[in-house]
Design brief:
With 154 residues, the chain is α+β, with helices and mostly antiparallel strands. It is built from three helices and five strands; from the N terminus they run ββββαβαα. The protein has a domain at 3-81: 2-Layer Sandwich (S16 Ribosomal Protein, Chain: A).
Length: 154
């Protein structure tokens, strides 16, 4: 019989609450055939709350010496409590990442918004009244021609 330490779901619909239980690995999650309840997990509590994860450390240690293996989530709880060394879990799904199609759609939308912003800025620039400061008038002195009157013969 392989014993495991895992979560068993309790609580109402859309209000999850978990018991951390020691059970046979072949049992269903909520079968009720648990060997011991060694903690509680309330995901509705804030992450920094003491009530989020409650562990009975002495019982967990005794079950682990008897060969019980923690599930991935319980392993993280125990690592945060300092009972086990922290480790990286290599099996990580990519479902939380955006698809290529979504990335392209977001990029297209950003490009369209940028073009609209540029057009709006250009329209505002064109709508501004043009106020010119008077430029200094430079008067060039033209060479003065001397007009010589010639007497007209009568």
């Amino acid at each position: 019989m392989a014993t495991v330490i895992r979560l068993a779901r309790f609580g109402a619909k859309k209000r999850p609450y978990y018991h951390i239980v020691v059970t046979d690995s072949r049992n269903a999650r909520n079968s009720g055939n648990t060997l011991a309840t060694v903690g509680k997990y309330d995901p509705m509590q804030p992450k920094d709350s003491d009530k989020r994860v409650t562990l009975k450390i002495d019982e967990i240690k005794s079950w682990m010496t008897k060969g019980a293996k923690p599930s991935d989530r319980v392993y993280k709880f125990l690592a945060n409590a300092g009972l086990l060394p922290k480790k990286e879990f290599t099996v990580q799904t990519k479902k939380h990442l955006q698809s290529e199609k979504t990335k392209l759609r977001i990029k297209d939308k950003a490009d369209k918004l940028a073009k609209i912003a540029e057009a709006k800025a250009a329209a505002e620039e064109a709508a501004k009244p043009v106020v010119e400061t008077p430029a200094e008038v430079v008067v060039e002195s033209a060479p003065v021609e001397t007009v010589v009157e010639t007497p007209v013969a009568e």
